[in-house]
Amino acid sequence: MLAGAHISIGGSIDKAIDRALKLGCNTFQIFTRNPRGWQQSSLKEESIQLFREKLSSSNLVLPLIHMPYLPNIASPVDQTYNRSTDVLTEELRRCSLLGIPYVVTHVGSHLGSGIKRGMGRVVEACNKALELSGGGSTILLENTAGTRNSVGSTFEHLGDMIQRIKPQGRVGLCLDTCHAFAAGYDLRTVSDVRHTLELLHSIIGMEFLKAVHVNDSKGALGEGLDRHEHLGMGQIGEDGLRALLSQKPLRKVPAIIETPIDGRRDDVGNLQKLKELGQN
C-alpha cells in the first residue's frame, strides 16, 4: 500500500522529502506555498534541484501537491475566480518543476449562484489551467462534504465535470473518505464500501481514481460536516476503513492521512494505524 501524510515544507521545499522518509512514508502530499494566503514565494532553483534529486533517490512515489485553501474555482465572483484559476495554473507548473504528477484541488462553492453555474466555472478553470500550464501533470478534483452551496459532493456532479475537462488524461479524482461519508456515502461496513465503490465506478469510472485522503469523520453519515477525525476514532470506524483499504483499486493509489494532531494521536500514530488497517 502507498501510505503517506501531508508533509511540511518549512525551511525549504526539499526538506519535505527528509520529513516524509523519517515518518516512514512511501508517498506524501505538500503545499508549495502558504495555504492560508494568496501571496506566493518563488521556488528557488537550488531547492527545486535538491527536491528532485532527493525524490529520485528515495522510495517515495506518486507525490501530490495540494492547492491552498483560499482559491475557489467555482466562484461566481470574477476577481476570486480569476485569481483562483491563476493559482491552479501556477501549481500545475510547480508540479512540472518538481516532478510531481498530481495537484489536488478543492472544487469549491458556487456561493448561491447555482450548482450548474458552479460546475461550469470549475470546468472552465481546469481547462484554462491545463492549457496554460503546459507539462503533463494531472488535476485531481477532491469531493466535498456536502456543505451549503458546495460543488462536487456527489459522484454525479464530479463525473459530469471530469468528462468535460480536457484532455481526459490530465484529470482525475481524489476521494476524501470523511467528505464522502459526510455527503451520504456510507463506508462503515464491507457491504457499504463495496456499494459506494460500485457507485463510483458506474458513475465516474474507477480509472479516474488517482488518490485517497484517508480520514475518519467526526460527523454522522450525511450530516455535511467537514471535520476530520483520527483513524478508527470517528463515525466511519476501523472496520469501515479496513474494508476500504482492502479494495484492490485503493491499494494502487496514494493513501494520504489529513488527520488531527492532538493529545490522543499525532501523524506518527495515524500513519501506523493506516498501515495496520491496510494490512491483508
How would you describe this structure to a colleague?
This protein is of the alpha/beta class and 280 residues long. 40% of the residues lie in helices and 14% in strands. It has helices at 15-23, 45-56, 78-98, 115-133, 155-164, 177-182, 190-203, 237-245, 267-277; strands at residues 3-6, 27-30, 64-66, 102-106, 138-142, 171-176, 209-213, 216-217, 228-229, 255-257. Strands 1-2-3-4-5-6-7-10 form an 8-stranded parallel beta barrel. The chain has a two-stranded antiparallel sheet with strand order 8-9. The protein is globular. The N and C termini lie close together (10 Å). The mean pLDDT is 96.
Task: Please identify the structural class as seen in this structure.
Answer: alpha/beta
Listing every helix as H and every strand as E from the N terminus to the C terminus, the arrangement reads EHEHEHEHEHEHHEEEHEH
- Broad CATH class: Alpha Beta
Order of the strands making up the biggest sheet: 1-2-3-4-5-6-7-10
- Report on the biggest sheet: 8 strands, parallel, barrel
Going by CATH, the architecture would be Alpha-Beta Barrel
Shape by Cα distribution: globular
Write the layout of secondary structure elements.
Elements: E1 3-6, H1 15-23, E2 27-30, H2 45-56, E3 64-66, H3 78-98, E4 102-106, H4 115-133, E5 138-142, H5 155-164, E6 171-176, H6 177-182, H7 190-203, E7 209-213, E8 216-217, E9 228-229, H8 237-245, E10 255-257, H9 267-277
Parallel strand pairs: 1-2, 1-10, 2-3, 3-4, 4-5, 5-6, 6-7, 7-10
Antiparallel strand pairs: 8-9
Helix pairs in contact: 3-4, 4-5, 7-8
